[in-house]
Amino acid sequence: MTIRIWLKRDSGQYWPSIYHTMPASCSCMSFNPETRRLSVGMENGTISEFILSEDYNQMTPERTYEAHQGKVTVVLFVLEMEWVLSTGQDKNLTWHCSESGTQLGLYRTIAWVSGLQFDVETRHVFVGDHSGQVTILKLEQDSCSLVTTFKGHTGNVTALCWDPAQRVLFSGSSDHSIIMWDIGGRKGTAIELQGHNDKVQGLCYAPHTRQLISCSSDGGIVIWNMDVTRQETPEWLDSDSCQKCEQPFFWNFKQMWDSKKIGLRQHHCRKCGQAVCGKCSAKRSTIPLMGFEFEVRVCDSCHESITDEDRAPTATFHDSKHSIVYMHYEPTTGWLLTSGADKVIKVRQTRPDVTDVKRLV
Description:
Layout: E1 2-8, E2 14-21, E3 26-32, E4 37-42, E5 46-52, E6 59-66, E7 72-78, E8 83-88, E9 92-97, E10 103-108, E11 113-119, E12 124-129, E13 133-139, E14 144-151, E15 157-163, E16 168-173, E17 177-182, E18 190-194, E19 200-206, E20 211-216, E21 220-225, H1 253-259, E22 267-268, E23 275-276, E24 283-287, E25 292-298, H2 300-305, E26 315-319, E27 324-330, E28 335-340, E29 345-349, E30 357-360
Antiparallel strand pairs: 1-2, 3-4, 4-5, 5-6, 7-8, 8-9, 9-10, 11-12, 12-13, 13-14, 15-16, 16-17, 17-18, 19-20, 20-21, 21-26, 22-23, 24-25, 27-28, 28-29, 29-30
Protein name: FYVE-type domain-containing protein
Domain FYVE-type: 236-307
Keywords: Metal-binding, Repeat, WD repeat, Zinc, Zinc-finger
């Protein structure tokens, strides 16, 4: 139930300059460095705003929003619009005027929201929820309209990241996957990235190096090179028999009877999408340009076509050594912050020429 502001001292160590107790447990926050405005969402549905002093040694209460009937899951301050966007476990997306404190609008989602991003230029808000759906809305001063919805995850959406320059949206999920949605290309392109063994907890984009940084609850941090031409994964094809050896699958009773053969289990090649049996897809390979940094099932012919150059990794893997619950990246300095279930905050320098980790308890 506390907020702490940590300052780096001349010794290089971080010490809390502010220790502020809140009326309820804090569930999320948003900070705007330009205005030094700190927006804090709480489990009682309230959002409290503070203004920090120039030396970051004092915080002054500014305004309180009675925004939700349940826990606030995401809060976002948009300086250009003077809006405070928030979502809660009451399945409501609300936006308030930060000047007057009045509620401007409300949108009801199909499930409670765990990811929220906003594009200032188009006034589009991207909403990821626990049904696995991503919804795009066009916000106006006192209303909103549905633009479209995406459904590509088999688990709930846990994180969103918007790159306004490339017009690309990244979504992470409890199904361990990341999807890159090409919004600006208007072609409906969706690129999968498979590099985590647990729930994706955070996504950040480094525009200067064109890298996507992702983290998962098992402590894994993956830095993806997005300055490469990636390929969409193919649609899985339907078939009653193996598309390589023509052996029937176990539900194809007629062909099993006619050929006097036992039906086989169906698999799919991750490179071509064909329906194949286990014998025709016994080999494994990484396919980094398709987002598969781990070895996956491929058919024999695709395995032969994959070269060593095709297997060159497009991501690097790191261990944070704690179970990550939140991640933030500051592109101007290259600092990457992670907070864990162990109640430890770690700050890392992601530049390749510097290896430095600071630990805040």
